[in-house]
């Protein structure tokens, strides 16, 4: 097959000198493949297979586990540090957890690419993550329905909580205002004061698909936040 743009999501040792990798590709979504020599010190495969590096890859195989036949760099590695790095690790981790193998996800790829450009910029980081999370939910056909489970419109004055079974919103005294949820539905994500509500909705919508195992990247974020506390 011809070379395809890709990013490395996850890598682990495989047998003696190879690596088992998950890649996010432009046309084929997430693929899992063996990179021969991917763990050998000094090998070109190991040098190229780095997180946040734009790649061209090709592979062979009809089964779920492919064999990489080409790995070439197609650009500069995103230089991430601190919170930006942890957000990048989070983006990789949730894609590895959520995307079924070989499910086409061109929008996810596009928003991932945009996210890597946003992560070094603190002011753009949160919104880039939310748009990427939304693209993942869309690929799973799991985006929230901004209505009640019965299909009724949300009352701007009423508070609601997300119901994972219906993907809709139930009245709740401790939830988010219907007015706020309407802003999110309209895509008006730059609205002042919306960041925390948007994060809350995304986390609730993603949770049923991530399973019960804690995200390693989220644990690292919490540890960083605790270290910052006086």
UniProtKB/TrEMBL annotation:
Coiled coil: none annotated. One of its GO terms (cellular component) is bacterial nucleoid. Keywords: DNA damage, DNA recombination, DNA repair. This is DNA repair protein RecO. It holds the Pfam family RecO_C. The keyword DNA damage applies. SUPFAM superfamilies: Nucleic acid-binding proteins. It comes from Vreelandella populi. Involved in DNA repair and RecF pathway recombination. Belongs to the RecO family. The keyword DNA damage applies. Gene3D superfamilies: Nucleic acid-binding proteins, Recombination protein O, C-terminal domain. GO terms for biological process: DNA recombination; double-strand break repair. It comes from the Bacteria. Residues 4-72 form the DNA replication/recombination mediator RecO N-terminal domain.
């Amino acid at each position: 097959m011809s070379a395809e743009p890709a990013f490395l999501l996850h890598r682990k040792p495989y047998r003696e000198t190879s690596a088992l990798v998950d890649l996010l590709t432009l046309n084929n979504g997430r693929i899992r493949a063996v990179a021969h020599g991917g763990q050998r010190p000094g090998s070109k495969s190991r040098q190229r297979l780095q997180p946040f590096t734009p790649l061209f890859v090709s592979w062979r195989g009809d089964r779920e586990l492919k064999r990489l036949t080409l790995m070439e760099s197609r650009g500069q590695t995103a230089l991430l540090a601190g919170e930006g790095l942890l957000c990048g690790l989070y983006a990789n981790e949730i894609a590895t957890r959520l995307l079924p193998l070989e499910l086409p996800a061109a929008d996810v790829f596009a928003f991932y690419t945009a996210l890597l450009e946003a992560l070094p910029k603190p002011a753009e980081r949160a919104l880039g993550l939310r748009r990427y999370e939304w693209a993942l939910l869309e690929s799973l056909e799991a985006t929230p329905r901004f209505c009640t489970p019965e299909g009724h419109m949300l009352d701007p004055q009423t508070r609601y909580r997300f119901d994972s079974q219906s993907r809709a919103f139930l009245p709740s005294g401790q939830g988010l205002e219907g007015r706020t949820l309407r802003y999110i539905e309209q895509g008006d994500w730059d609205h002042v004061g919306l960041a925390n509500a948007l994060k809350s909705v995304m986390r609730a919508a993603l949770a049923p698909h991530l399973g019960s195992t804690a995200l390693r990247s989220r644990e690292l974020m919490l540890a960083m936040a605790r270290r910052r506390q006086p």
